[in-house]
Design a protein that fits this description.
Elements lengths: L22 H29 L5 H7 L6 H30 L1 H17 L7 H29 L2 H32 L10 H12 L11 H6 L3 H34 L5 H20 L1 H8 L1 H20 L4 H29 L5 H30 L1 H25 L13
């Protein structure tokens, strides 16, 4: 006869289950996701500064054909924002360290929307150019603050993953914005300027989901800056120099590749767009796995890999006598860029002392956009005097040199670690 089951014993068939998450835990999880989505959205706005109106440039020049210096001013409409971002980003980052990230970000987003949409109404080419210059100031504040907030909110592996996600989001966003800008330009040359109104959507998002990081105020920035080892500042300076050269190499493709393909007997603009788009797609996919690459190789060896792949891509492109070698070269280049782009942000936030994190983020933003501005200035004379293939070959040697420097630093075994001190929440 079986003994009766104790009345307080659970049934043998009843599985043990974990208690459901509390509403508070669910709300916190949703808030964390919303915060990440907010930072990605704000980061994506920076891609719009040039990409969205690029397809409208021929129509803008035709509309203002009777204006003095129309051809030159039209091109400055595209390049003015990067120049003013480079000029203002470091100052904007220092401002965020002194007066707060959130306040600067909100002001920058408001200025972004107003200046970006000014092209819908302004009736002169110099007026539009002024609006684009002010847009560059707004992007300087937006991008430097967004990067600093990532450094404030996240640490370690979580920060590395988010930097890769940010780079990937910006790469995919560039593809969408270029396509969307082209579709809007089909309607009217002013239509792409309306897209800058997306900045106004970000303002309530920032108010709801981004908080001001806690920072100690009883020491001055100067005092804490001088307490930072010189070796750290030397490493930051080296990283910023690499950011300028990386960006110069990156922008050789959109400024020179369409002409190179035409010289190879492939004049169709759609082919150039497909090639550049494929490279950006590969970059975005690789950036999604950046945290794994960093965990496997470390920061310096990952830079060595990234610059090495970019060098191979440029070398294949320079040696091409037909389309497919160029296409393969751009795939290699995109793979390398998918490692170096998030690596620059990761390295800067690893090294930056918390007291001047905004200033370092601003300096990184300035260097990235300075490279964009300098790229056609430096590459076009080489392309015109020695040929576009030579310009790609020189670029291959340039990034190969960066790969060698990164490899030498890795072999020296100087370990890069985050600065000591309290991290923000």
């Amino acid at each position: 006869m079986a003994s009766p089951r104790a009345p307080d014993a659970p049934p043998a068939t009843e599985p043990a289950t974990a208690p459901p998450p509390s509403p508070q835990a669910l709300l916190r999880g949703q808030h964390v996701l919303a915060r990440k989505a907010s930072l990605l959205y704000v980061s994506g706005l920076t891609v719009m500064s040039t990409a969205t109106i690029a397809p409208s440039l021929p129509a803008i020049q035709a509309h203002f054909a009777d204006a003095p210096h129309a051809a030159m001013l039209t091109r400055l409409v595209l390049t003015a924002p990067p120049l003013f971002i480079a000029i203002c980003a470091t100052v904007a980052g220092a401002f965020s360290d002194r007066f707060g990230r959130r306040r600067l970000l909100l002001g920058s987003l408001l200025l972004y929307g107003v200046s970006g949409m000014s092209g819908l109404m302004l009736e002169t080419l110099p007026g539009i150019l002024l609006g684009r210059a002010i847009l560059g100031v707004a992007v300087a504040g937006t991008m430097s603050t967004a990067t600093a907030l990532i450094g404030d909110y996240y640490t370690g592996a979580e920060r590395n993953r988010f930097m890769g996600l940010q780079a990937s989001f910006m790469a995919f966003g560039g593809l969408v914005l270029l396509t969307g800008g082209g579709l809007l330009a089909e309607l009217h040359w002013r239509a792409p300027f309306a897209a800058y109104g997306l900045a106004f959507v970000a303002i309530p998002v920032v108010l709801l989901y981004l908080f001001e990081p806690e920072r100690s105020e009883h020491h001055s920035t100067t005092t804490r800056r001088t307490a930072t080892p010189r070796r750290t500042w030397a490493a930051i300076a080296l990283l910023l120099a690499a950011a300028v050269l990386n960006s110069m190499a990156f922008y050789i493709n959109p400024t020179q590749l369409p002409y190179y393909l035409k010289a190879l007997g492939i004049p169709a603009p759609a082919v150039a767009g497909l090639t550049l788009g494929t490279s950006a797609l590969v970059m975005g996919l690789v950036a999604l796995r950046y945290s794994s690459v960093l965990g496997l190789l470390g920061l310096r060896w990952s830079f060595c890999l990234g610059f090495g792949l970019m060098s191979v891509g440029f070398a294949l492109t320079a040696a091409a006598n037909g389309y497919w070698l160029v296409f393969v070269g751009m795939i290699f280049f995109g793979m390398g860029l998918g490692v170096t782009m998030p690596g620059l942000g990761t390295g800067a936030m690893m090294l930056a002392p918390p007291a001047v994190r905004g200033q370092v983020a601003g300096a990184l933003t300035a260097c990235v956009f300075l490279g964009q501005f300098l790229s056609p200035v430096m590459s076009t004379p080489v392309a015109e005097s020695a040929g576009i293939a030579t310009a790609f070959a020189v670029s291959s040697g340039l990034v190969a040199g960066l790969a060698v420097v990164a490899g030498m630093l890795a072999l020296l075994g100087q370990r890069i670690a985050p600065p000591r001190g309290p991290e923000a929440r």
